[in-house]
Amino acid sequence: MGSMFRSEEMALCQLFIQPEAAYASVATMGEAGVVQFRDLNSEMNVFQRKFVSEVRRCDELERKLRYIQTEVHKDHVHVPVPESSVFPFAPNPREIINLESQLERTENEILELSHNAVNLKSNYLELTELRHVLEKTHAFFEELDMDFLDQDGTNASGTDSMTKALISDEALNNQSQVTRGRLGFVAGVVPRERVPGFERMLWRISRGNVFLRRAELEESLEDPATGNEIFKTVFVAFFQGEQLKSRVKKVCSGFHASFYNCPSAHSERQEMLKGVKTRLEDLNMVLNQTRDHRQRVLTTVAKELHNWGVMVRKMKAIYHTLNLFNMDVTKKCLIGECWIPIKDLQFIRQTLAEGSKAVGSSIPSFLNIINTNEKPPTFNRTNRFTQGFQNLVDSYGIAGYREVNPALYTIITFPFLFGIMFGDAGHGIILSAFGAYMVLYEQQLSKTKSSNEIWNIFFGGRYIILLMGLFSIYTGIIYNDIFSKSMNIFGSSWTINTDSITVLNNKSLILNPSTNFTQIPYPLGLDPVWQVAVNKIIFLNSYKMKLSIIFGVVHMMFGVILSVVNHVHFNKKHNILLQFIPQMLFLVLLFFYMVSLMFMKWILYGPQNPQKTGPGCAPSVLIMFINMMLFKHTTPFEGCDEYMFEGQERLQKCFVVIALLCIPVMLLGKPLYIILYERRSKNCESESSRDINGSIELKETEVSNMISSPANHEEEEPASELFIHQSIETIEYVLSTVSHTASYLRLWALSLAHAQLSEVLWSMVLRLGLDSETHWGAIKLYVFFGVWSLFTLAILVMMEGLSAFLHTLRLHWVEFMSKFYVGNGYAFQPFWFKNVLENEETIEE
User: Fold this and answer.
1) Contact 799, 543 (CB under 8 A)
2) What number is the average pLDDT over the span 726-752?
3) Which of 261, 484, 669, 679 could lock 759 by a disulfide, CB 3.0 to 4.6 Å apart?
């Protein structure tokens, strides 16, 4: 919890590591994630660094892994890739060699299997096309006289579809002349999408002297290389002469048509078809065996693929980190600089010692702390519960080094202020159930990688949602508001002391608190009778508005008090006198006094009191506060007093005068102190030290203080800038006390809007299903309940919940944190394998 109160103490360290022990030491640091390394080779490019060859080796291993992963994902239906929640450690140098050989052997085996599979599928495709050619061309040859045909059995590589029959009128007219010679023909298959162009080209090169017949294949074929479906068409082109033969072959080659040896005799075709079918059966058996063997190999590889990927990524991250190190003059030691939390210094020293011992190095590695004035990074240790709240604060700005961390207090104040705005126990139950689901099943849900950004945001803030729901239930019980209805658990404290005729004949009956109230308040929350009261909205407006002001002023006062912790820690105790006390007096004497008047009004004025302290004489706190600031008076009602107690007017004038006197103190006190005291004392000390020693020497304690509390250079600013900055801060604080107090009224406004929306939704939707007294009422209720539930979830829970969340966030960022939080730091970014792996997965997605 100490690091949640303020960031951890950091130290800038210099590491001296032996080259043979560097890999193991950095790997251990990467598992712990507590070291942020600095680049000592920023003037070098990536190709000039020492471990660039090792990084290239890792790149080659990643290429092999990507290829293996691609081959596995081709069969993702049959070969699942299991992911383990336990990540392996980074491999040592001996394991790296074994991993390289294993990946190379696996890649070669998969390459060979893929190459053989492509060859087998290509043979299968050719035999399948040949089978279709032999089957489809039987009808073509029967149309012509088989005695005059001359076969052309040339094979060529081609394409994949079928063509339409194109019979030219000129070829049919010359058929009688053709039969006197000998016809040649070319049979094959062509891609279906190329058929129109194929037909037109044959027509043009032969001037209509090519007789083309075609038939489309009903079933699709498989591309051996990609596995995609392809559709082809069988064709037979009849021609006369060698010249047309060469032209037809060139066109077929240009359109990627495949030629097949097709005999003209029917018996030869049948015999050839029988042999092709036999070969297809044998080849299909071989393909099945090859596919089973490939699946077994990929299944075995898939079990190790995740671990291999983790090890290679860790290994690459280690070498990238080692490239940040510098080599000493003797080339026998690696030197690195890093930020380390002081709590982990002993762990890092032990890590360096174990790394040297593991490799048997005679020279131990060691660590030195560097004295520096550089501002350290901000590091707040978090867990699964506090991470979400820390992210809310860091979204506004990273806390300065050792500055008070608002996330510790946000854990309670954020869901509490949200609950005041939300204020419905029924909707809070829905919100709590959703948050509890994500918390209880966070292990299973965290393993599921989702690309839905909205879901990832919800899951990251699951504990925030759970607490917001729980506080909404609490405030809903205080408001006695559950789905716009109230619960009468303890019995109302209001009684009706009139007869039934008077009650029934009066639409709005006025109850007198002095006679109709039992003087025993409702034990918890609001009395349920207010739910049916006509003046409910008037009462709730006053009640919730006052609560908003009370909690707002207390919240701002707490923020001002936290500034004292920063002043004391950074040794700026003059700020306590010149800033904190005037700011606190200004806030307390004006706005906390207004809060005190609210409590006094609740206590002093009651229905059982005399007329002067009765409800009719209760003064308006707002009017009284305005008169106080303007030094005005308001004429009270007859028989009533303007003020609540004697001497209140003089006391209020004193409060206003003191508050106004605090403004010049805030405006001029700090700049004058810095100019007149600190700079003068600093000059005197420097002159005296020059006279005594002739030079300026810093003591060891002073240097250590500079490390633990980095110097704030406001003393080095010119006097004009000091006054300008302080004027801006003073004006901002004085004006913000008014605007921020009014800003907390959003607690009242959103609570009122949420309650009214819930009541309207109940009366205009769900009540329509409750009005019917027939048997159709159940059906109506079922339908309207569904509509009511949909609107409740979509509008009142999600939209109103998001609105209340954003307003609560603003109250913390602006109204609360501005009182003490600067947020000018930078985050601690350690070398951590967890972050490396998560970033890699995000890039891949």
Assistant:
1) no
2) 93
3) 484
